[in-house]
Amino acid sequence: MFTFTDKGGRDVALRPEGTAGAVRAYIENRLYADGTYKKLFYEGSMFRHERPQKGRYREFHQIGAEILGTANPLADAEIIKIADEILKALKVPATIEINSLGCKKCRPAYREALLEYLNSRREELCEDCQRRLERNPLRILDCKEEGCQLIASQAPKITDYLCEECKAHYESVKNYLTALGVEYRENPHLVRGLDYYSKTVFECISEELGKTVIAGGRYDYLVEELGGPPTPALGFAAGVERLALLVKELPPEKPLILVIPFGGEREKAHALKVAQTLREHGLRVELSYREGKLRKQFEFANKIGAHFTVVVGENELREGRYPLKNLLAREEKKLTLEEIIATLKNL
Ligand code: HAM
């Protein structure tokens, strides 16, 4: 983390991620009080004191979503499905890997088995991992050093140590993902870089980038650890820069409609209302603030990349019909506002 003392002598840290903040907001605003689960989302810059390289920055952006207040594995499947949908919508190829990290009941036994194994190979571990052995042996499974990866591949698997409840939860998540048609690969050595996880964890890994682009999982103890009531929760975050590096095709943009007032105050006021009505129907609309001849207005429409124009002049006001011009097809039809809305929404 980037930590420093500010001018007021306060110790501050730049946020490295959004989950802890979302959890604090949940607790401080007593969002648990009505007994229903809550869905939160966020986007913004995050800061990590890392060695920069392609796809790894000290300031980067995440979009994330969290569900707080449910232990139901249906939520795990839906969270992973959102990640899958983001990748599909942006045509970013990535493999979804999943694992279960167990709970307070079953993880200690696994930790012990893992420690015993890792201690037997202590000398072969990198320096960082020798230190991790004391503090957080699970993270050794995540080490990128070749030697450590080999050792990790032969380590005991957490999935062999899951308690009945965690096993059933993991089975349900897998069944639901299959029902949703989400392709995934089980990776019993997937542990994640943050320490709050329990049960389900997942990562969407880009082979092209050699990095994870979206990741998340359950953190059933974090709300309690930060001072709230026991609250099972889960979520994910996507790295915006990593997605941007990999995106093959942006989802098609909505066509842009330029509404052109033509005439005096009455026509302008009416054009204002027409633009607003079209927007209220979910259309992407720009109202022209340009003055002058229609020819100039159409030049402006081309400049801003408009696909359609709607002219609102004196005749249009009288007839209640407006020329809808398709600038690409160079076609024009006189339509009522309802017909314009129907035409544009059906594109
Ligand atoms: P994370 O895996 O640390 O998880 O980060 C999520 C995503 O942020 C990564 O998959 C990656 O795309 C992006 N990211 C992380 N570090 C960098 C970096 N230095 N440069 C560029 N992109 C980066 C979390 O942050 C958890 N809060 C996710 C979560 C939400 N778990 C539960 N709820």
Question: Helix and strand layout, with pairings?
Answer:
Blueprint: E1 3-5, E2 11-13, H1 19-28, E3 38-47, E4 59-68, H2 73-90, E5 95-100, H3 107-120, H4 127-135, H5 146-153, H6 164-180, E6 185-186, E7 198-206, E8 211-218, H7 222-225, E9 233-239, H8 240-246, E10 256-262, H9 265-280, E11 284-287, H10 294-303, E12 308-313, H11 314-319, E13 322-326, E14 331-335, H12 337-345
Parallel strand pairs: 5-6, 10-11, 10-12
Antiparallel strand pairs: 1-2, 3-4, 4-9, 5-7, 7-8, 8-9, 12-13, 13-14
Helix pairs in contact: 2-6
The protein binds histidyl-adenosine monophosphate (HAM).
Residues 17-19, 48, 50, 55-57, 60, 62, 64, 66, 193-194, 212-217, 219, 235-237, 239, 241-242 line the site of histidyl-adenosine monophosphate (HAM).
Ligand inventory: histidyl-adenosine monophosphate
| Strand order in the largest sheet | 3-4-9-8-7-5-6
What composes the largest sheet? 7 strands, mixed
Helix-strand pattern, N to C? EEHEEHEHHHHEEEHEHEHEHEHEEH
Strand content: 15-25%
The proportion of residues forming helix, as a percent range, comes to: 25-40%
Total helical segments: 12
Q: Got a strand count? A: 14
- Supply the helix-strand structural class: alpha+beta
Could you name the ranges where pLDDT drops below 50 across 5 or more consecutive residues? Answer: none
**What's the pLDDT, averaged over the residues?**
95
Quote the distance from N terminus to C terminus.
Answer: 48 Å
Shape by Cα distribution: elongated
Please state the CA-atom Rg, rounded to the nearest Å.
27 Å
